[in-house]
Amino acid sequence: MSIFDSLFTQELDRAAQRQTRRRLRTAAAARGGHVTFEGHDVVDFSSNDYLGLARHPLLAERVADWTSRHGAGARASRLVSGNLDLHQAVEAKLARFKGTEAALLFASGWQANAAVLPALLRVPGQGDPLVFCDRLNHASLHHGCQAAGVRQIRFRHNDLDHLDALLAERAGQPGPRLIVTESVFSMDGDRTDVAALCRVAERHGAFVYLDEAHATGVLGPSGAGLASLGGGRVDLAMGTFSKAMGSFGAYVAGSRQLCDYLVNVCSGFIYTTALPPPVLAAIDAALDLVPGMDDERQLLAGLGDGLRRALAEQGLETGASSTQIVPAIVGEAGAALALSDGLRERGLLAVAIRPPTVPAGTSRLRIALSAAHKEADVARLAGTIAELRARTAGGNGGRP
């Protein structure tokens, strides 16, 4: 028992009344595109395994090999005794993949954003930074700015004209300019026009921090993400290996000086144990596979286009989605939960996303497609959504 348990209970009860209480549900790995969820085999439309690599045999084989040869742990921070030759080799391969001078590994996307931004925003001798953030940035990006003690200047979602105007308004103010945004947004499945973003940055001398978590492996030349569309003006690209790359971990890619600077000042790198050999092995194998997976990327794009068409025919809003992430926006949290529950009962997992993750009134099913899915899986999902919504409308006087 904790002396705060009564307070915790009150807050959990309030969350339940708002239909925003979250609970962990038991799942187990299953065949590609499926998961065993609370004891039942379901088609998984909620994970981020976009290329189906999480169960790819090459990743498993290399993990077993490197674990046998190098052990299960990295032993320490890389600045103490944990800087393995494996880290250096994987980072060199990653930099080639991203087309940058250097790359640096981190434990997770959250850790990278939360630790790298404060390191960047505290560069001495530059004055107080002006940080321009897309209002729908991931929570870890907001957290990184808050940890640095800076006030964000937020521009309307993907509105580069608004960003340009905000930068122009502050043209005479001292301090470095940083633009922080994502190439693909995780709840909406839409993408930033990276080329146009970088033209804005160029006009105003701004540093570009681009979160590529949901683009890495899926979009851009050879699946390397969208940073390459910036013509060399993306100063820092952050991405993860826990989504399309099928395993775990994150990276920062950019100049050699940038990465060396982070090694010296970034607390999330300095004061944490290095990624262990089994994780490095999975990353290494994914980097071998992903550049040659154009067929899978094409399939994934086609599945997304087909699902958006099917949902539009039902009158369901999918926003500006143009990727493997397709939101089916239903409005209220209760409606999203009911639709998700109905799908799960029919063997389809599409988890409801509610406030505060998304704005009030935009609760949705966040449908994440995978190259492991078949067209028949996606058609079944769309058809079942239509069936459930028709049944709900019939029970509410025709109101969906």
TrEMBL record:
Domain of life, source organism: Bacteria
Pathway the protein acts in: Cofactor biosynthesis; biotin biosynthesis
GO molecular function ontology, one term from the record: 8-amino-7-oxononanoate synthase activity
Enzyme class, broadest EC rank: transferase
UniProt domain Aminotransferase class I/classII large: residue ranges: 41-385
UniProt xrefs under Pfam families: Aminotran_1_2
InterPro entries membership: Aminotrans_II_pyridoxalP_BS, Aminotransferase_I/II_large, AON_synthase_class-II, PyrdxlP-dep_Trfase, PyrdxlP-dep_Trfase_major, PyrdxlP-dep_Trfase_small
Keywords from the named record: Biotin biosynthesis, Pyridoxal phosphate, Transferase
Keyword RNA-binding among UniProt keywords: no
Biological process according to GO: biotin biosynthetic process
Gene3D superfamilies (alphabetical): Aspartate Aminotransferase, domain 1, Type I PLP-dependent aspartate aminotransferase-like (Major domain)
Cofactor entry: pyridoxal 5'-phosphate
Reactions catalysed, as given in the entry: 6-carboxyhexanoyl-[ACP] + L-alanine + H(+) = (8S)-8-amino-7-oxononanoate + holo-[ACP] + CO2
Enzyme Commission number(s) of this protein: 2.3.1.47
Subunit annotation: Homodimer.
PANTHER family named in the record: 8-AMINO-7-OXONONANOATE SYNTHASE (PTHR13693:SF100), CLASS II AMINOTRANSFERASE/8-AMINO-7-OXONONANOATE SYNTHASE (PTHR13693)
The family this protein is said to belong to: Belongs to the class-II pyridoxal-phosphate-dependent aminotransferase family. BioF subfamily.
Protein name, UniProt field: 8-amino-7-oxononanoate synthase
Provenance organism: Pigmentiphaga kullae
